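User: Reviewer 2 asked us to show a designed sequence for the structure in our supplementary figure. I'm pasting the structure tokens here. Could you produce the per-position amino acids so we can include them in the response letter?
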């Protein structure tokens, strides 16, 4: 007679509770949360400098693919999503080793405010660079990317997070960023 509980039946299509997507996001979060604060601040500052540098020149290179404007606009979302993650890591309380580095709402709000400020400054900067233009729609794509990254990170920090929920959030985040980039593309063509 066995005293162990039988395994609960699962649907054959059910995603494992802690699959590769959730593990990847949690691993990235732990790595960012383990950075000493000065290094986290330097990483965020370096990323901001890279964004400024990329905005400083004309965009002469256009890949020879259909809808390349859409993909250029879509690139704003992950660039500013990374900035949101770096800013949140820079201002978050330092977690215990091995713990999920949930930055908490104050750090997320500071990160979102920092992204909004830098995105607005970046669009102003681009408007003053010959061959470039600023766009409120690019600003919206920047914020969409930042919000999605912070939302996904907050979900990954929940003890009850599971792979299926992570996949849904990742897909919805990509769809929201694509919608924002599509709106930018249409607005740019209409201008």
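Assistant: Here is a per-position design you can include in the supplement:
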């Amino acid at each position: 007679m066995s005293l162990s509980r039988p395994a609960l039946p699962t649907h054959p299509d059910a995603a494992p509770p802690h699959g590769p997507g959730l593990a990847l996001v949690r691993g990235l979060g732990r790595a960012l949360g383990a950075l000493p604060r000065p290094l986290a601040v330097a990483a965020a500052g370096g990323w901001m400098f890279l964004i400024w540098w990329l905005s400083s020149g004309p965009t002469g290179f256009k890949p020879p693919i259909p809808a390349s404007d859409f993909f250029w606009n879509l690139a704003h979302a992950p660039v500013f999503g990374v900035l949101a993650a770096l800013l949140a890591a820079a201002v978050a309380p330092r977690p215990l080793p091995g713990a999920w580095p949930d930055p908490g709402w104050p750090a997320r709000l500071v990160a979102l405010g920092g992204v909004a400020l830098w995105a607005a400054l970046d669009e102003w900067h681009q408007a003053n660079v010959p061959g470039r233009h600023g766009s409120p729609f690019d600003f919206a794509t920047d914020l969409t990317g930042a919000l999605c990254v912070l939302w996904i990170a907050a979900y990954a920090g929940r003890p009850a997070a599971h792979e299926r929920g992570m996949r849904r959030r990742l897909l919805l985040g990509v769809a929201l960023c694509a919608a924002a980039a599509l709106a930018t593309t249409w607005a740019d063509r209409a201008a």
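For the response letter, you might also mention the following. The chain has one domain: 25-56+69-190. DSSP finds seven helices and no strands in the chain.
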